[in-house]
Amino acid sequence: MTLRYGLVGTGMMGVEHIRNVAITPGAEIVALADPVAESLQSAKDALGQGAQPVVYSDSAALAKAELDAVIVCSPNHTHRDVLAPLFDAGINILCEKPVATTIEDARWIVDRAARSPGIFWTAMEYRYMPPVAEFIAQAHGGRVGKLRMLSIREHRFPFLSKVGDWNRFSENTGGTMVEKCCHFFDLMRLITQSEAVRVYCSGAMDVNHLEERYGDRTPDIIDNSYTTVDFADGSRAMLDLSMFAEGAENQEEITATGDNARLDVLIPAGDLVFSPRTGFMRQKAVERTHVPVEEHALRAGHHHGATFYEHQKFAAAVRGEGPVEVTAHDGMMAVAIGAAAEISAREHRVVAMDELEF
User: Fold this and answer.
1) How far does Cα 116 stand from its chain's mean position?
2) Which of 14, 117, 195, 332 could form a disulfide with 10 if both were Cys (CB 3.0 to 4.6 A apart)?
């Protein structure tokens, strides 16, 4: 059976989904919805000359079509309104991160997803980068011993231009710590297998977008930060973010340190580096291995093949052949940690997670 997908939001990430659905066996995109003509044309170009997708005015109209699933890639702050008619239709949904820009909206999505006959999957692509997936498997398999420390570094390029530059303002994104960093807070929860109890974030907008003006408004998004998260099991994690470091050799570096060893994963190098404890002044025993990614998966997107592998899992879940691996609740919890980090950065204080209602 070929799964018939609709796509709401046909910007850059929407086009990435188009390319990955195209190489997913038994799946095709047959319907599009986006109010911006240029974005719709980009999607049609990505689908190719032979494709004849039906174009709808919005998600409410698209929800009436005969579809097996809908991918939601609209701007973050529109997710609740976009999702409402899809939930009403009981359709299967893959929703891009962050699932919402506020905890209130995320909580609403969790509630609606629980009552819907369709599945709901929060798109957290970083879980599915093959080197990261192997890193997680080894950490969970006990290779580092009992995990005590987790660090994530993302040194990357600034926010890209979007339609109307909506991503320049926290009211549209939830702030950088929600918009960009929810991926990493999701990884923290997944790797530690615990829940956050307190968050401290020191961050600011120091380099990017300083000269940009939108009428009488200026951007208000963090472009660099350090965030420390304490977890209920006693482990702690740290995120080091710079959005003016695109010259770095690796965009992401993740390190898990336990009582027996340290394990690193480097992206895009694709290497795992295992460093067991050896005792003071003894010879080190570092092991480096490479985790390959299929070339067609790399070519289809900008997330080290992750979107392709995520789509294979999502399609299996739609067919009833596999579980939903990233739930609406997972999406909400990542938003909650990001929201706590935004409060912490603004108010220069530690934020306890039990201050937030989620």
Assistant:
1) 23
2) 14
In three-state secondary structure terms, 91 is: coil
User: What is the rounded distance in angstroms from the CA atom of residue 307 to the CA atom of residue 282?
Assistant: 42
- Profile the chain (358 residues) by mean pLDDT over runs of 10 residues: 96 96 97 95 92 95 97 97 98 98 98 98 98 98 98 96 92 96 98 98 97 95 98 98 98 98 98 96 96 96 95 98 98 98 98 92
Work out the burial of residue 133: count CB atoms within 10 Å of its CB; fewer than 13 is exposed, 13-18 middle, 19 or more buried. middle
If DSSP codes are grouped into helix, strand and coil, which group holds residue 219? coil
Write down the pTM of the prediction.
0.97
Residue of 259, 285, 286 whose CA lies nearest to 142: 259
C-alpha–C-alpha distance, residues 279 and 105, integer Å = 50
**Sheet of strand 69-72, all strands in order from the earlier edge strand to the far edge:** 54-56, 27-33, 3-8, 69-72, 92-96, 120-123
Question: Is residue 303 within 8 Å of residue 340, measured between CB atoms?
Answer: no
Helices (H) then strands (E): counts for the chain: 12, 15
Q: What pLDDT is recorded for position 182?
A: 97
- Residue 79: Cβ-neighbour burial (10 angstroms; 0-12, 13-18, 19+): buried
Distance, CA of 20 to CA of 179 (rounded, Å): 22
Q: What is the Cα–Cα distance from 231 to 188, expressed in whole angstroms? A: 9
Show the DSSP H helices in 48-120 as ranges.
59-62, 79-88, 103-115
d(CA 148, CA 221): 31
Q: Which pLDDT belongs to residue 126?
A: 97
**Three-state DSSP state, 316:** helix
CA 44 to chain centre: 25
- How far is 188 from 136, CA to CA, in rounded Å? 10
Residue 36 is predicted with a pLDDT of: 93
